[in-house]
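Ops channel
N.P.: pipeline sanity check, posting one input/output pair.
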């Protein structure tokens, strides 16, 4: 029992000592005078018991905890590594998303730019993807909205071959050149509302419709008119087929499986601009070709005028009581049957226009008909000759021949180079480097003499022959013994304009006579015959000059790079691309270095 009490007392003493030590550790020394001085033994015990209290303070140092976690706590270390990987992975995903978004935005920007600015390079040696300067000049002045509808999807249209791709590229470049020019692609079977507007007209796949909403006018361009088939046309021409017949066959070949064999060039720029000239014309000029009196084929001239924005039609004087006053030109293309006086009177009233003038007659002589009777019973254009004589003009019953080889064509005396005169009718054709050809030319005689006028009618020579010409009467063509030295020689007229000016309004009525019906048909690459005719009609009608654009050949299309293109590619490949790669590499390296 005593032992238990003794043991309990020891525990109480130990507890009291611990309490005292804690109190001493927490409270500072007191200056209380009643406190007893500590013994040396008590101080030693106190110092020994305070040492363990310093160890927890060392465990709480900030520098120890990370080191212990890294070296002694794998779970905490794994957690930190996972956090680091998550951080880097998130950054990688963010950068990837930003890069993809940047690529998409850049692609959209480039697409928008390429829709408005031509960013392509034409490497073909014939420039089949490059707009002509004349086309650009015309488009720069276009102020009326024009819609060009290609009757096919763009993919299928270009799928027709290189020639269709060239046409499509040129149309899109024309659209980039001027916002008023808009191109759309419509499949015929999927757009009945659109096609119903052209009931009664032929509209097939790959046809192109040009419209101007402001004027309500439209024109349909066929593949046969926006492609050239010169070799095929020449082949048909050699057999003497008329132009209208040739056009039909060309159209058939171009729209068949033989297209790649007959198409040799693109004429889309000329065809499109010709259509625009027509549809944007707010005051169209009407040209009526007579029929019913054995006229020759005039399709070349009518097509030429139509392409340059004129409204072309036909008129049979025998079927109308009066000529429509809305018509501006009457074209008599080489009639072989004489007119009666009743119909000639209609022409006279047309030119007088109730005293207001402002009307025009263009006459092309027939190469075979006589204008004066050789015998009493012979056929001749006597009445028509008398009508022309009222304007001081006579067509001679002779051919103009040329002895000077410098002015003959193909060593044929009957085909020759002619001299364009410096007049407003010629425009820029005068003095250019091209030639004016004609054959089987009849002399256009000024019956009142040079620089003479009568009844207010004056005359102006438009085209002459060169020196070395002589006249051979048609009646002597079969005479092998014809003596050239006895023939009339000198310079003769091939085209003369007789005109009458209104005394008050200064409005003019005109009669223009050509000595040959072949003049409009000459379309050699070095000839200006058709340019002259367009300029003449434009000047008379007060229209602006027409647009003549050379077709682009598909033959021998190559990709020879010119020096300018080579320099551009060299700069891009040797400078721009390497610099971009180097800069990107440096940026990536610096970012990783400071990560």
């Amino acid at each position: 029992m005593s032992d238990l009490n003794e043991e309990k007392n020891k525990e109480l003493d130990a507890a009291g000592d611990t309490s005292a030590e804690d109190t001493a550790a927490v409270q500072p020394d007191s200056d209380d005078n009643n406190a007893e001085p500590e013994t040396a033994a008590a101080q030693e015990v106190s110092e020994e018991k305070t040492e363990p209290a310093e160890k927890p303070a060392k465990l709480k140092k900030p520098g120890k905890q990370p080191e212990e976690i890294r070296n002694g706590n794998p779970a905490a270390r794994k957690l930190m590594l996972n956090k680091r990987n998550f951080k880097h992975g998130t950054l990688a995903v963010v950068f990837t998303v930003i890069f993809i978004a940047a690529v998409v935005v850049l692609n959209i920007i480039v697409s928008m730019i390429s829709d408005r600015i031509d960013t392509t390079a034409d490497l073909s040696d014939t420039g089949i993807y490059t707009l002509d300067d004349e086309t650009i000049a015309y488009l720069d002045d276009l102020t009326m909205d024009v819609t060009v509808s290609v009757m096919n999807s763009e993919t299928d249209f270009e799928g027709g071959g290189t020639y269709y791709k060239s046409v499509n590229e040129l149309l899109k470049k024309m659209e980039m050149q001027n916002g008023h020019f808009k191109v759309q692609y419509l499949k015929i079977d999927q757009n009945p509302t659109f096609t119903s507007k052209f009931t009664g007209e032929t509209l097939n796949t790959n046809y192109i419709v040009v419209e101007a909403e402001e004027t309500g006018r439209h024109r349909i361009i066929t593949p046969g008119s926006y492609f050239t088939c010169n070799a095929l046309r020449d082949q048909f021409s050699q057999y003497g087929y008329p132009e209208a017949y040739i056009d039909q066959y060309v159209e058939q070949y171009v729209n068949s499986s033989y297209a790649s064999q007959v198409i040799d060039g693109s004429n889309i720029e000329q065809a499109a601009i010709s259509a625009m000239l027509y549809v944007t014309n707010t005051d169209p000029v009407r040209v009526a070709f007579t029929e019913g009196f054995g006229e020759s084929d005039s399709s070349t001239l009518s097509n030429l005028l139509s392409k340059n924005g004129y409204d072309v039609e036909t008129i049979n004087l025998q079927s109308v009581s009066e000529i429509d006053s809305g018509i501006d030109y009457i074209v008599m293309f080489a009639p072989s049957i004489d007119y009666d006086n009743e119909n000639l009177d209609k022409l006279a009233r047309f030119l007088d226009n109730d005293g207001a003038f402002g009307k025009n007659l263009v006459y092309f002589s027939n190469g075979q008909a006589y204008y004066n009777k050789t015998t009493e019973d012979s056929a001749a254009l006597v009445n028509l000759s008398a009508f022309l004589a009222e304007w001081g003009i006579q067509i001679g019953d002779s051919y103009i021949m040329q002895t000077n080889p410098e002015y003959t064509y193909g060593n044929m005396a009957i085909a020759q180079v002619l001299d364009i005169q410096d007049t407003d009718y010629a425009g820029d054709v005068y003095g250019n480097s091209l030639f004016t050809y004609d054959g089987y030319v009849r002399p256009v005689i000024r019956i009142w003499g040079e620089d003479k006028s009568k009844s207010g009618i004056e005359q102006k020579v438009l085209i002459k022959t060169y020196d070395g010409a002589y006249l051979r009467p048609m009646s002597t063509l079969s005479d092998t013994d014809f003596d050239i030295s006895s023939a009339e020689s000198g310079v003769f007229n091939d085209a003369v304009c007789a005109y009458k000016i209104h005394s008050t309004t200064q409005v003019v009525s005109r009669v223009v006579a050509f000595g040959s019906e072949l003049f409009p048909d000459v379309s050699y690459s070095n000839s200006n015959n058709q340019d002259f005719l367009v300029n003449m009609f434009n000047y008379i009608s007060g229209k602006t000059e027409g647009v003549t654009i050379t077709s682009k050949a598909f033959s021998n299309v190559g990709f020879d790079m010119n020096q300018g293109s080579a320099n551009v590619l060299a700069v891009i490949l040797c400078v721009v691309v390497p610099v971009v790669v180097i800069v990107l590499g440096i940026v990536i390296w610096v970012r990783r270095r400071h990560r």
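N.P.: looks fine end to end. The longest strand covers residues 412-420.
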